[in-house]
Design brief:
single chain; alpha/beta; Rossmann fold; two-stranded antiparallel sheet; 6 helices
């Protein structure tokens, strides 16, 4: 865990938030999927690996008010918190490694764009699923964005596990029902294209 944390602390110390490949000025794919699942403004939402992402800005602007952001990197969270200013005081900022985290809230939405695909070992993936099961209430939704099978093999110098809806369904197990799957071509700040896939699941059973 400490190696992963050190890596991301270094990334956010060395680069501005707009100078990383995953930067999105407006996280349209994620906001579109939140609209599809029909989450209410007061429902608790958590962004896993959210870091300096601007999803939290979009959620607050849309009127959501029970928002949490979890990331390994305290520096990344500080970037988002400082950017939001006074509005950031209403966000629950969590500095933790998700696979060792103990949730204390039952969330309506578990959102993860580009965190899960850094877990390349099966034991890490299963630990992640175990935490997600604890955190996501029955009837809640998990929105998972990863590199697609034809996406990049590495990100930020680290290997990734590329996925499609079928591989995620196998990993998450019978308690998660796939309700939507789509690809997205993300354009990096320097103009290259990365193929992502987004799969949305409903939590149906313990």
């Amino acid at each position: 865990m400490s190696d992963r944390r050190d890596h991301w602390e270094h990334v956010y110390s060395a680069k501005a938030e707009t100078d990383v490949s995953w930067f999105q000025d407006v996280p349209t794919p994620s906001l579109d999927l939140l609209a599809i699942v029909g989450v209410a403004k007061g429902d608790p939402i958590i962004d896993i690996g959210g870091g300096a992402s601007r999803l939290v800005d979009g959620l607050l602007a849309a009127g959501f008010f029970d928002v949490s952001v979890l990331d390994l990197s305290a520096r990344a969270l500080a970037v988002a918190r400082d950017r939001l200013g006074e509005a950031g005081g209403d966000v629950n900022w969590i500095t933790a490694d998700v696979i060792g985290w103990e949730p204390r809230t039952a969330y309506a939405v578990w959102h993860d764009r580009a965190a899960f695909h850094f877990l390349t070992a099966e034991r890490e993936q299963q630990a992640y699923v175990g935490v997600m099961k604890q955190a996501l209430k029955i009837g809640g939704h998990a929105i998972i964005g990863t590199f697609a099978p034809d996406g990049p093999e590495k990100c930020s110098g680290l290997p990734v596990a590329r996925h499609d809806a079928e591989s995620l369904s196998r990993t998450f197990g019978a308690g998660f029902v796939l309700i939507d799957s789509r690809t997205h071509d993300h354009v990096t700040p320097w103009g290259s294209t990365q193929r992502f896939q987004f799969s949305t699941f409903r939590r149906d059973a313990l």
